[in-house]
From TrEMBL:
<protein>
    <submittedName>
        <fullName>Metal-binding protein</fullName>
    </submittedName>
</protein>
<dbReference type="InterPro" id="IPR003772">
    <property type="entry name" value="YceD"/>
</dbReference>
<dbReference type="Pfam" id="PF02620">
    <property type="entry name" value="YceD"/>
</dbReference>
Amino acid sequence: MSPVHPHPDRRSPLVLEVHELGRRAGAMKRIETTVPAPADLGIEVIGVPQDSDVEFDLTLQSVSEGVLVSGTATVELHGQCARCLTDIEDEQSFDVQELFFYPGREMEEDESLVVDETIDLEETLRDAVVLELPFTPLCREDCLGLCPDCGFNRNLDPDHGHGEKIDPRWEKLTELTGDNPN
């Protein structure tokens, strides 16, 4: 049984016309465009802000099974460092490659389909970006993180410290010897 594919919203900037490829194997079309990012393109700690620019540099190629889309998507990333909680802003390019099958053949549930001579790049974009995002983004590889005692950002002062810790159970004994470090 073939899965039901809804008709794409032709008003969406992520829906592209492929009519001019005409199911002629080898026909190609180059697309360079900038579109607004869809909502929820990311994970909890890092992602692409909604409506920020997504720059596509794509090649659409007609093959016997459908339309092969390949190229890059360049996006702005915003998030927080997992160690020190500073804001991260970066621009990154992600490889995009997806085969959109022509209708009329048995389909797997997760396969993309050419519908009404259009292709919808939203799921392809999500797969390319979200699957490549780091689960623990860092502001830099050698980030020192926050002090576990006071929350101070140790990147600002790597020598940050609180002196020698004394077990509270033994603290009264230090008063007897006069060796109280506090």
